[in-house]
Amino acid sequence: MDASEDVIPHIYYLAAVVALLPLFLKMRSTIRARHESLLRVASLLLVMAFLVLASAAPQSITLINRTTGVTNIAAPWVYSLLTAFSACCLLMLTAWRDGATASAGRVMRWVIAVYSLVIVALWVLFALGDPAVERLRDFDTYYADEPYLREMITLYIVAHTVANTVNFVLLWSWERRVRRVDAWLRTGLLLMGTGYIATLAFNGFKLTAVVGRWSGHDLDWLSTQAAPLAGAIGSILVGAGFLVPHAGQAAYEFWRAALRHRRLLPLCRLLKEHVPAGPSTLVGKPDIHTSLTIREKEIRDSLYTLAPYLDHELHRRARRAALDPDPVLGESLGRRLTPREAEGVAGAVAVSAAIAARAEDPGRGAEWRSPDSLLRDVEAVSGALRRPSIVEAVRRSAAARSESTPAAWNDTPAP
């Protein structure tokens, strides 16, 4: 419960905010799925981490002691919170790994029973001891030789060490199983595992300082400076480990949707200008995923409207010209196009020609053919529209190609 105020000011409060951050970010989904045991345990763990860190700061310790009027009562209070946090870590990992199985239920009940007894023992030992001198930063080492208080201090350190050791072993075995399955979950587990290593260092520093007092050595700096820093770092890493699998995946999906939304803009803008799909009935500002769905629907509807004017033979010749350009076209392109780029350019040529054909003869009753096989990759088509000079060069080359091109050409759309 000692603080490293000389090392990092307000480090406990900073770590407390970081520990509670995942709960705020997942508040909506947590409320929706509040009946799920895993979410309840994870939420309780984050709240306990916040309470431990917020209560362990020297200012908070002073406030607790002054409010209750009991000298050093903040000590068993913080130790109890830390013990409850250790139990919550074990409960969370058990529920996360094993789900709602009978064996998991038995393990969780044992954890609750054992750590509840530890908390009761902490308060009993504090009541039997005599902590007459208020200590805000060095309670552990100052009372390391006092009867009952010595046992209380040792008990909370051992209980916390056992929980963190078990958690680290569980995380290590789990990380090996998900190593090639879920990158975000693995990253979260690695962060949590590193956090538990830092927390074990916290326990090691505390215990070393206490044992040093027993043997007549002054190693108080391990308890008052090194331990709080390790504990705060561990709490931040554990909180980040909870956050990464959820927030990381969400950020990745957001980025993918935003990138595709942006890449489809040239094609969407061209079709809206010449073949509008009709106004959207959506009310309010949509999120990026909804915006992407709307954009894809508008492009699909406009292409289906444009379908009777799409020249599949022109598309075939344009693709062939892009894949195997003549010297003039090769000089214009500057390099050979990949099969996907060639498909995109051929699609852009076909769409541009269809728009022009529709403008010249809006009522033409050509045979309707689905544009799906011709424009299977609208993102590549949209990307090609960003380079109109290349699209125009391929169009001219395709128009110059003779209809008597040998049948040896492979007309199957490139992958």
Automatic annotation (TrEMBL):
It comes from the Bacteria. Residues 396-415 are annotated as: Disordered. The chain crosses the membrane at residues 7-25, 37-57, 77-95, 107-128, 148-172, 184-205, 225-244. The keyword Metal-binding does not apply. The keyword Cell membrane does not apply. Keywords: Membrane, Transmembrane, Transmembrane helix. NCBIfam families: MAB_1171c_fam. This is Uncharacterized protein. It comes from Streptomyces pini.
